[in-house]
Amino acid sequence: YHTPLDRFENLDLRSVQHQGESVLALAQELADTDLSAQAAGDAAWTDILGFVVVHWSASWTMPLAILALILLLVVSVVVILRTDLGLGGLLLGLLAVFLALVLTVLLGLGLTWLLSV
Questions:
Q1: Mean pLDDT (whole number) for 31-44
Q2: Which residues contact 115 (CB under 8 A, 6 or more apart)?
Q3: How confident is the model at residue 24 (pLDDT cuts 50, 70, 90)?
Q4: Cα dihedral across residues 108, 109, 113, 116: positive or negative
Q5: Dihedral sign of CA atoms 57, 61, 63, 68 in order
Q6: 100: enclosing H helix or E strand
Q7: What is the distance, to the nearest Å, from the Cα of residue 14 to the centroid of all Cα atoms in its chain?
Q8: Rounded to an integer, what distance in angstroms lies between the CA atom of residue 54 and that of residue 61?
Q9: DSSP assignment, residue 52?
């Protein structure tokens, strides 16, 4: 994570100021929040393109994942039936996505190794 260049003299004071402002805003927001009004229980969170944060009860995570899988299967069947793509083309596309993900992970690991040398 750290490199030999992580020294005080290389520190950008604007970055420190920005981080300080962010932590201060978070602390002020937490101080003004009525924690007794918050719902109890576990929750799952995600953001949508950095515009809005969506949260739901953690107990809904598995049903939502199953619903997403069913939707993927339905859309796949519709694409196979209504286009010239066919099952082979769809599987080839899925293979390309999988290989792109694997390549991304390998590149990330390679860059991490290069930066740690």
A1: 82
A2: 3
A3: very high
A4: positive
A5: positive
A6: helix 86-116
A7: 27
A8: 12
A9: E
Reference 6, options 116, 83, 94; nearest CA is 116
Who contacts 10 (Cβ-Cβ below 8 Å, separation ≥6)?
A: none
Range(s) of the domain holding residue 79: 42-83
Determine the residue type at 58.
A
Q: What is the pTM of this model?
A: 0.52
Structural domain includes residue 6: no
Query: Looking at the domain assignment, is residue 54 inside a domain?
Result: yes
CA angle 94, 98, 100 (to 5 degrees): 115
34-52 core/surface letters (b: 16 or more CB in 10 A; e: else) = eeeeeeeeeeeeeeeeeee
Residue 46 within any structural domain of the chain:
yes
Measure CA of the first residue to CA of the last residue in the chain; give whole Å: 11
The identity of residue 117, as a single letter, is V
Number of domains in the chain: 1
Q: Which two tokens stand for residue 96?
A: 């390309």
Residue 55 lies in a domain: yes
